[in-house]
Amino acid sequence: MPIEPRLIVTGHNSAGEAVFVEDRHPESVSVQALRGADFFLMWGTADGTAKVGGTDVAPVVRPYFPGVGGSRVIFLRWAPYSAEPEPVLDPDSVRSEVAEKLPGLLDPFEENGDGMHTTDTIDYAICIEGELCLELDNGAEKTLTPGSCVIQQGTRHAWKNKNDKPALMCYVQIGAVRE
């Protein structure tokens, strides 16, 4: 049975006491651009400085990548064999769908369709289930297994599932300034 992402959020009531404000299984989002994958937009903070202690707790999950000082937590279930070439889709249809469902997702991707991209984020990428391959721009690869954590520091890379089983990853993205 695959793991189902669950979101539990704490906050404060009007008396300043710690309370649970949310407990749910987020709906998945899928797009043609990454067929068979399920995105779970868990939580995020606005760009700038994160704040705690208030009673108005609302996630910021769009755009897909945070700006400087913002954050996002995303679970992504990669389909088996996502490293295999996919049929050519209508590019306008793909871009339009992603712009609606996951705005900003395609912005850092290169046009050649190999999945390589570079983001202005520090990413903590944690393998929860299955195996996923991380490829860097020089062709170097590492296979992540459950419990692996990659610290992605704005490098050019691509993620690929070369396995016959889905892979579940948790990505924590912090918007950063590129030097």
TrEMBL record:
It comes from Virgisporangium aliadipatigenens. This is Cupin. It comes from the Bacteria.
